[in-house]
Structure formats: structure tokens, C-alpha cells
Amino acid sequence: MQLVNIGFGNIVSANRIIAIVSPESAPIKRMVQEAKDRGTAIDATYGRRTRAVLVTDSDHLILSALQPETVAARLDKNIDNKENN
Q1: Which conformational region is residue 5 in: left (phi greater than 0), alpha (psi within -120 to 50 degrees), or beta?
Q2: Strands 61-64, 41-44: parallel, antiparallel or unpaired by DSSP?
Q3: What mean pLDDT value characterizes the chain?
Q4: How far apart are the C-alpha atoms of 39 and 33, rounded to whole Å?
């Protein structure tokens, strides 16, 4: 199982992530609000501004204070390390 650090010591299973998106667009804002209403939103921002939304295969949304590019780079780094081992 590969794990990805999404900031502030929070770690997510890499193989469960479907997408990493920016929370700026209206459809993503709606998705986040609906997930909060359903109780499937996981806020890992520690009170900071949400800069990335991770969509998982279990229909959970994980909110991160890191930029989507940063999370994606960490995910790519973990995948590269797995392939080299």
C-alpha cells in the first residue's frame, strides 16, 4: 500500500485517490458542500484555506491545504519509488 502525505502529518492511501482538483470552480464547491452535508467530507486543512480536493473511490472528499500540484508531485514521487523498488 502506497501512502501520500497531504499536509500536516495527514496521510492518504494513494491507490484510493481518483482525482486531485482545485476547489475554485462552482461544481467542485457544490461537491464539497454536498459531501459535508452527507458527512463524507474529511477536512485535513487544520483551519487553513482549502487548496486541493482529493476525490476517493469510496465517494469521500478529502480537503487539503496543499496545492493540487504539490499533492500530485508527492503522488508521482511515491509511484516512481514503488516502480524502482
Answers
A1: beta
A2: parallel
A3: 94
A4: 10
